[in-house]
Amino acid sequence: MKLNQRQVQHFYWRAGFFTSYPEVEDGIEMKPEDLYEKALAQSQQYTAINVVEMDTLDYMKMKDMPADEKRRLQQESRTAIKQLNNDWLEQMANSDAMLRERMSLFWHDHFACSSNRSFFMQGYLDTIRKNSIGNFRDLLFGISKEPAMLQYLNNQQNKKGSPNENFAREVMELFTLGRDNGYTEDDIKEAARAFTGWAFNSQGDFVLRKRVHDSDTKTIFGKTGEFEGEDVLDMLLENKQTARYICSKLYKYLVNDQEVDAEKLDLMVNTFYDGNYEIEPVLRLVFTSDWFYAEKNIGSKIKSPIDLMVGLRRSLSISYDNWDGQVFIQRQLGQTLFYPPNVAGWPGGQAWIDSSTLLLRARLTEIILLSSELDLEVKESGDDNDQLKIYGKLKKLGSEVDERQMKKDFKSFKDTKVQMEEYLLQVPVDETKFESKSESQLIDSIIAISKTPEFQLC
Fold first, then answer.
1. Is 59 exposed, middle or buried (0-12, 13-18, 19+ CB in 10 A)?
2. Does the predicted TM-score (pTM) go above 0.85?
3. CA nearest 458: which of 419, 412, 427?
4. What DSSP character marks residue 428?
């Protein structure tokens, strides 16, 4: 099988966040195996994102700090989280390691988490990005011991004699087996005892507090023993339902979120489970299979806000000169990195589109390319501890367009309107009508296409 243009673009939308037109051209007539190997090779090298060197928010010491010093440290942490958000978006938009970043976004949604401590969120992101195309067991164990997650799910309060079940419940319900799949309320209660004492110290390191840890006998999934937290995680991995739950989410994320092919899902599940939870072989199976490139899967998904933002940047040579612009778009469109709505993550799919987001989605490309002023109020979260708050009004997104590079990328176009539609739309339209708002046919075509409903699909 050799790939046509739409199939190459389909690959780049699902294995990454789209790409430039010259790179699409290079992929035409390639075999799926070769295109995948190229993306995998580019994602092998890992570079951590570091914005803070140590945790300055020691809450034990902050209790006795003067109010102004406490506010200063909290502001520093907010700024660092905003920078972490920005730096990760820069990796998505500019790095060749698109497969690693695409999968990192998947795991961020799967292991949804938020913290007001930038050092914790930095460690959480590092664990996700480092393991995103590696081994799920390593990722599960790593995330389960990240201070950000332990704090988010209240395991710091999980103590012998009065166990807090929140962490144990979500590990089963959202991270491994899936809701109501293969566990009982008693399993949760007993597993919570195994996780007692899992905590973090003031430096942001995982610690097992033996004084409050329950080391007595427990009965979990029909087995009895002096189980530790690690034993519970291994039990969850032994259950093939974990592989099925993860692969069902992967199928919807990578292939089609409206129609799941049971036979293809079984192939993914067996590859994942029999391969000791290695992630990359599942990705290889998907991206090199003919069924991934079937017509029904192309353009079948609504772009998430991050897909939309980063896809525009990768295709149209767009950059930002400040953090607030990118945070503003995330906030307005309903997907702010490091700020999920809850531990279940973002609902996705049709939930991305509603009356409050549709207007900005339709106008976003025009606002960016023509440097239009915004007439939208900053959408507040209603959370007093919001770490990504934007104060006041934002008149400009702070976006910049490299028109010279854009013209270079599309210099081979003979029919700008038709070829731009083929490039920017995975679902073709019969006709695009628009009013000219600039002297550039190239810009006019892009803006017109971006206003179509089909532009929201990938």
1. exposed
2. yes
3. 427
4. -
The answer, yes or no, to whether residue 100 has pLDDT greater than 60, is yes
Closest C-alpha to 253, from 328, 179, 306: 306
DSSP string for 155-194: GGG-BTTB---HHHHHIIIIIIS-TTSS--HHHHHHHHHH
Question: Token pair of 325, please?
Answer: 């612009």
Token pair 């809450």: residue: 59
CA 243 to centroid of chain Cα atoms: 20
Instruction: State pLDDT tens for residues 250-302.
Output: 999 999 999 999 999 999 999 999 999 999 999 999 999 999 999 999 999 99
CB atoms under 10 Å from CB of 191, counted, come to: 27
The whole-angstrom separation of Cα 451 and Cα 429 is 12
198 bridge partner residues:
208
What average pLDDT does this structure show over 378-396? 59
Residue with tokens 């739309």: 425
Residue 200: phi and psi, rounded to 5, are: -140, 155
Task: Provide the 8-state DSSP code for 202.
Answer: T
CA distance 425 to 101: 23
Q: How far apart are CA 429 and CA 98, in angstroms?
A: 28
